[in-house]
Specification:
Elements: H1 4-28, H2 31-64, H3 71-93, H4 97-130, H5 134-148
């Protein structure tokens, strides 16, 4: 049975693969393909972040019975992730492989640290707090992801 953690970890892997594809296209100097790959990455990344921010985090906060939680810090990190991904996209438009590489390195570091916190601490905590509601939340996340795809 799929869990919140396995669903979201698989989505992390999917986003990582799309980012690698963009990086490969930039390194090869295939700028049109790089732009398309970067668009696919940004779309998948944004969908993932929105699923967390609009479905998972509110469900977790409601189960905790308070509006402030560890999700506040994660949302702050989401802003940074979006900003760096945008700089990567701009460097593709500018056909600036050097800038892309710098921003990609920063994003890889940020995503790694962010993912470690989510997969190692936050998602398991959410599953414990949500308990029997996990499958309902998972279905809501799937439905939401389909709507924003």
């Amino acid at each position: 049975m799929e869990t919140l953690s396995s669903y979201l970890a698989a989505d992390h892997d999917h986003c990582d693969a799309l980012m690698r594809s963009a990086d490969e296209q930039v390194r090869a100097g295939h700028w049109l393909a790089a732009r398309q790959a970067m668009g696919a990455f940004q779309g998948a990344l944004e969908r993932h972040l929105l699923v967390e921010e609009r479905v998972l985090f509110p469900a977790f906060e409601a189960a905790l019975g308070r509006a402030t939680s560890p999700t506040d810090a994660m949302c702050g990190e989401h802003l940074r992730i979006r900003a760096v991904a945008q700089r990567m996209a701009e460097s593709v438009i500018d056909r600036d492989g050097r800038a892309f590489a710098i921003h990609a390195e920063v994003l890889l570091l940020v995503l790694h640290q962010h993912g470690e916190k989510e997969e190692g601490v936050l998602y398991p905590m959410m599953e414990r707090v949500l308990g029997d509601r996990c499958q309902d939340v998972l279905e809501q996340m799937r439905s939401f992801a389909e709507c924003v795809a």
